[in-house]
Amino acid sequence: MRVDGLTISIKAGAAVAAHRIVQYDGSGGAIQATGPTDPSFGVSDLGADSGAALDVRMGGIAPVDYGGAVSAGDPLTSDADGKAIAATPHTHTENTAGAYAQDATTDGASTVRIIGYAFVDGEDGDIGSVHLTPGQA
Questions:
Q1: Could you give the CA distance from residue 8 to residue 108 in angstroms, rounded to a whole number?
Q2: Domain spans of the chain?
Q3: d(Cα 5, Cα 114) in Å, to the nearest integer?
Q4: The whole model's pTM is what?
């Protein structure tokens, strides 16, 4: 199923495989995302070699390579290879000791970023679909 949405063309800052979650590379290009805290912004369409034009889907429903078991409706984030996996929302523990101490897990670096929500069930190696709605879990 193909549902057209917003697609941009951007320079690939490194080789990017098809249907992978991407992030900005800091030099005006895009690279594959490498984890759930990366500021992902879209999903590659056909992939591209380093320095080539890369089409990135930024809106609508896009095909995405699943990197694990996913259920329709799951919020999706990136694994180390830019594949979509179910996001685990950031949590913190309450301070029950009676004295305030900063919880080191609440900094911005641990924020789980999502690319959107799974449109279909699937597992590692499947090309599934994501409703692109970037945000935080």
A1: 28
A2: 7-92+106-136
A3: 18
A4: 0.83
